[in-house]
Amino acid sequence: MKYEIHNKYIHLKEEILAIPSRFEKEVDVIDDYRNVIKIMDIGGVKCNVKMFKPPHLINQIAYAYIRKSKAERSYLNAEILLSRGVLTPDPVAYIVYKNAVGVTRSFYVSVQLDYDFRFRELLQEKPVDLEEILIAFTRFTYDFQQKQIFFKDHSQGNTLIKRADDGSCDFYLVDLNRISYRKLTRKEGIVNFSRLGLVGKNLDVVSLEYAKLTGENMEYIKGTIKSNLR
Question: Is residue 144 classed as helix, strand or coil in its secondary structure?
């Protein structure tokens, strides 16, 4: 077993290392599509525990000897994001098990965030201030791109939105195992919006704001996003 526990939560070491043995018995499941995510009480801290789908044979070997596992990458990326002023739920720990072949199971643990919307729900529920939130979200995306963060899974399910007391919104990135750190080209920055499913007026709002931020032509931005939708 390989693990790392954040200094803030090292006093919960015993409880954290017991997560794998407890995980199957926990019933508060919030996602079991590919990976399984459960809410668990860890020494009085409400935690989001993600157990990654067992990797296929090649990745079992790769994650053990060549590349970091998804759980470890998620933990390290969370620390980097926070150090660069980009919000994500507090990282608590990662735990990785391997056998003679390679990695078999891995867990990423973070503090459960009480949020108001995922980006997907924002588009579905259409609050009265949707346009203002989309403008703020565009600025948030531009900000982390300027910090040389290439968030490859910038999709509808991977941004949590939490309202502040003054009505403004904070944005938190989740699902962090696919991030690289480099300067993005202008086109890469635009295409980074393409997995968000923006259409119609929502696409217009984001394209116009991104044009203001970058100096790029709005119609070019909108056309580039549309042509790369997936």
Answer: helix
Its pTM surpasses 0.85: yes
What number is the average pLDDT over the span 128-139? 97
Structure tokens at 84: 């660069």
Q: How far is CA 83 from CA 77, 103, 147, 177, in A?
A: 10, 28, 11, 17
| CB atoms near residue 44 (< 10 Å) | 7
**Residue 31 — pLDDT band, cuts 50, 70, 90?**
confident
The residue extents of the domains of the chain are 2-111, 117-227
Domain over 2-111 is classified CATH 3.30.200.20: yes
End-to-end CA distance of the chain: 37
pLDDT for the residue numbered 55: 57
**DSSP class of 206:** H
Q: Measured between alpha carbons, how far is residue 38 from residues 74, 114, 133, 156, 200 in Å?
A: 16, 14, 28, 20, 35
